[in-house]
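Internal tracking record. Fields below are filled automatically when a chain is submitted to the structure queue. Please do not edit lines marked as system-generated. If the sequence contains nonstandard residues, flag them in the REMARKS field before resubmitting.
Queue: standard
Priority: normal
Entity type: single polypeptide chain
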Amino acid sequence: MSHKAVFLDKDGTLVDDVPYNVNPDRIVLTAGVLAALQQLQQAGYLLIVITNQSGVARGFFPESALAVVWLKLQSLFASAGVVLTDFYYCPHHPEGLIQPYAIACQCRKPQPGLLLQAAQDHDIDLSQSWMIGDILHDVAAGREAGCRTILLDNGNETEWDLTPARSPHFQVHCWADVAQTILTQLVTDPLPQPPALMLP
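SYSTEM-GENERATED OUTPUT FOLLOWS
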């Protein structure tokens, strides 16, 4: 039987946004996230991080540093009895300085490659799954992969380059509303038309 998943952007969504941070002591979960993830786990969702980490390509930290980040997140989740199923990252950027990471790729959001890989690895039904992020690149990746999408509108999106492919199915302002939105939607329901986004 296929699984369903909630895919989680990391910086600015799951944790407070500290640019290019791989210091575990500076990783702090955003307000309300653990309570929301407890509810989603109880509802049968796998929880999987999907994150762009161009700091590798830019030479700010080695790819090996991300293993420590994953361990820190697992520890923070475990403190609330929540399991982080997996951690997928893209180390690339086409304007990077470090070879072989300085490339255009299919895994850097808004491309859907990491979600597709996770679905293959964990037998996930993407049509029953969700992508949660704080910017429209996250939404675009989720939509392209065939997921439902939620924009956690916390002020981090600044470009608002709106197209149908980048419009979230739902737009909320806190993690409690993320959980409520997912838990009140039946996968057999047709996807709603995205509402007009509330621009800042």
